[in-house]
Amino acid sequence: QVQLQQSGPGLVEPSQTLSLTCAISGDSVSSTGIAWNWIRQSPSRGLEFLGRTYYRSKWYNDYALSVKNRVTINPDTSKNQFSLHLNSVTPEDTAVYYCAGGNSAFSTWGQGTLVTVSS
Amino acid sequence: EIVLMQSPGTLSLSPGERATLSCRASQSISSSSLAWYQQKIGQAPRLLIYGVSSRATGIPDRFSGSGSGTDFTLTISRLEPEDFAVYYCQHHVNPPPTWTFGQGTKVEIK
Fold it and tell me: For residue B96, how many C-alpha atoms fall within 13 Å in the half-sphere facing its CB?
């Protein structure tokens, strides 16, 4: 059974970088059968896919156009986890952030992290 | 960009009743890419249905999905107390790789 455990700060100052980590148990970040994703949820934007990382003989990333210039998702094979970095944040980036495993649909989710962007 | 519109916004029903939730796409979409999720307050979404009609692991058979083209339906045959929640449809298309969610339907106790 795959489980995802998120960690990271719940408060980020405007213009700074939001960084979250998702630790995987029961599967490998290097698995060739699944992608590892970040999704956020806010009252104003609903559920919003941010990006993903996956391994298919080499590493790939896909990012949503809405955040493409500000987002980086990295795998960490030594710790079997993956991370989200979103820079130049504004109050509009305030949301619950989820990591999730899946390809076309998302079958496994982390517990969610409320991140507030405020000074 | 494909937009998913869910209706109704809120569905007020009693336990034991049948729930029918709609998800309409702004243009025809591939049936293999339509999924449904359940979300309870304070929890992450839970995958119920993928590929329009395939139940995810551990999902009871009172949940069923159907549809094609632009119109898709999630049916809960007999509502159990634990089924009162918000439900989202989701679509995936590639290329370019894009995931889109509907705005949700809340199923509340009447």
Answer: 8
Q: What is the pLDDT of residues B58-99, one digit of tens each?
A: 999 999 999 999 999 999 999 999 999 999 999 999 888 899
Handedness of CA B87, B83, B85, B8 (dihedral sign): positive
- Closest residue in chain A to residue B58, using alpha carbons only: A107
Question: Residue B38 class from Cβ within 10 Å (0-12 exposed, 13-18 middle, 19+ buried)?
Answer: buried
Place of tokens 């939001």: A18
DSSP B77: S
Q: Do B92 and A64 touch (CB under 8 A)?
A: no
Give the tens place of pLDDT for each residue, A54-92.
999 999 999 999 999 999 999 999 999 999 999 999 999
Cα A25 to chain centroid distance, Å, stands at 16
Sorted by sequence, the CB contacts under 8 Å of residue B53 that are 6+ apart come out as: B64, B65, B66
CB of A36 within 8 A of CB of A47? no
Chain A residues within an 8 Å CB radius of B98 = 49, 64
Residues A14-62: pLDDT tens digits?
999 999 999 999 999 999 999 999 999 999 999 999 999 999 999 999 9
Mutate to test the interface with B, among A38, A42, A47, A108 (most CBs of B within 10 A): A47
CB contact under 8 A, A107 and B33: no
